[in-house]
Amino acid sequence: xxxxxxxxxxxxxxxxxxxxxxxxxxxxxxxxxxxxxxxxxxxxxxxxxxxxxxxxxxxxxxxxxxxxxxxxxxxxxxxxxxxxxxxxxxxxxxxxxxxxxxxxxxxxxxxxxxxxxxxxxxxxxxxxxxxxxxxxxxxxxxxxxxxxxxxxxxxxxxxxxxxxx
Length: 165
Description:
- By secondary structure, this protein is an alpha+beta fold.
- It folds into 2 domains: 1-69, N-terminal domain of TfIIb; 70-157, GMP Synthetase, Chain A, domain 3 (2-Layer Sandwich).
- It has helices at residues 39-42, 71-93, 133-146, 148-155, and strands spanning 29-32, 44-47, 53-55, 102-111, 118-127.
- Strand 4 (102-111) and strand 5 (118-127) form a beta hairpin.
């Protein structure tokens, strides 16, 4: 028998302390270009710890063979997992059963009508059988305000780009 997974010791009230960013976890993923010398089309993604190690590829809809994982799938996975975790935490704090919650994230890649550049659109669909909409609504709002992926998507995330030596 395996031990049950321990919930992270996080709260929505007591984890912030200070006027500066204090990372709780940091990871690095490196992408190489593969045979096409193009990370999105034929790359390989590997995390620093080696746990994530996968081929990247263009979906058939964008001219690829659809055989590799694409950035939209990875982003949708990360967003769904994070939002699910935050909503589960918020639900447990409200003494509600979070066991039946599921989160589906749809990421659409397209063109920005304003400038023709690439643009992502994101839709989250939360299924929570047995909960009424009036009870769920404030919890969904709270999860949206706490989920770092939601905050990034709707409020911007500080980002730096450097040329590493």
